[in-house]
Design brief:
Elements (H helix, E strand, L loop, with lengths): L3 H5 L10 E5 L4 E3 L8 E6 L2 E6 L5 E7 L4 E2 L12 E4 L3 E6 L1 H10 L3 H21 L5 H16 L3 E2 L3 H8 L3 H13 L3 E4 L2 E4 L2 H8 L14
Antiparallel strand pairs: 1-8, 2-7, 3-6, 3-8, 4-5, 4-7, 9-11, 10-11
Helix pairs in contact: 4-7, 5-6
C-alpha cells in the first residue's frame, strides 16, 4: 500500500530527524486544546483521532494506520483541535518544526507533499464534523473510505477487531455490517483482513445523498 508521502519519498530515511516515542494502548499522544509543535509519523500500531464535544464525550473522526502522519494541523504552533489516542501499543516519530526545516533542505518536495496531506485531512475532518449523527454503518463506511482515499488502495490494513476497538463498537456489530457488504459485493474477506472491492458502491449505498463528499481516489 502507498501513502502520498511514500509515492516519492521513503519515510524510513527521514526517521533519523524525528524523535522516537512509544505509546501504550489508550495513551493520549496529543490532546485537543493543547499547544502543538510539529507533527507525528505512525511507524507501528494504530491511532484513533477524536474530537471532544462540549459535553465531554469523545467523537471518533478518523483512524491513523502505519505510514501516515497526524497532528499536522498544528504546524503553525497553535492548539490542537483534535486528540490522538493509541488504539494499540504504538511507535511514533515526532518531527518538530525545526526538524522539518532540516528535512526540507534535503528534500524540498516534502513541502508540497505535506500540503497535499493537510488538504486531504482537512476534508476528512470536515466531513466527519458535519455529520450530525453517524449510524454504526455510516461510521465504519466513513473510516474505511478515509483509509482508502489516503492509501490509494482497496486493501484495508485493519482487522475487524481493530475497527471495533477504534469505533467503539462490538466485534459482532462490525462483523454483521461487513458480512452484509460482502453479500452486496462491496467488500471481500481475506484471512483476518478485508478488501474494499468497490468504494464507489460503498459511498452510494451508505451515503446516497452525499456522493460528491468523498473524492474517488482509489486506483483500481
Amino acid at each position: 500500500m502507498v501513502t502520498p508521502f511514500e509515492t516519492d519519498v521513503k519515510w524510513e530515511s527521514f526517521l533519523k530527524y524525528g524523535t522516537r516515542q512509544f505509546w501504550k494502548r489508550k495513551s493520549v499522544i496529543y490532546k485537543q486544546g493543547t499547544l502543538g509543535e510539529g507533527f507525528y509519523y505512525l511507524h507501528k500500531g494504530l491511532v484513533k483521532i477524536v474530537s471532544t464535544t462540549v459535553k465531554g464525550n469523545d467523537r471518533l473522526l478518523n483512524i491513523v494506520v502505519p505510514g501516515q502522519i497526524m497532528g499536522i494541523q498544528s504546524m503553525d504552533q497553535q492548539t490542537h483541535f483534535t486528540s490522538a489516542i493509541a488504539a494499540k501499543n504504538s511507535v511514533v516519530y515526532h518531527f518538530s518544526c525545526e526538524q522539518f526545516q532540516e528535512m526540507l533542505t534535503v528534500q524540498p518536495e516534502l513541502l508540497y507533499l505535506l500540503t497535499q496531506t493537510i488538504h486531504q485531512k482537512m476534508r476528512t475532518l470536515l466531513f466527519a464534523i458535519n455529520m450530525k449523527a453517524l449510524t454504526s454503518e455510516e461510521h465504519i463506511a466513513t473510516l474505511l473510505l478515509n483509509i482508502c482515499d489516503e492509501y490509494k488502495n482497496y486493501e484495508v490494513p485493519l482487522t475487524q477487531q481493530d475497527l471495533a476497538d477504534c469505533a467503539g463498537l462490538t466485534r459482532i456489530t462490525v462483523y454483521k455490517i461487513l458480512k452484509q457488504w460482502k453479500v452486496s459485493g462491496i467488500v471481500e474477506f481475506r484471512n483476518r483482513t478485508f478488501t474494499i472491492i468497490d468504494p464507489d458502491l460503498l459511498r452510494t449505498t451508505v451515503f446516497p445523498d452525499a456522493e460528491d463528499t468523498f473524492s474517488s481516489t482509489c486506483a483500481r
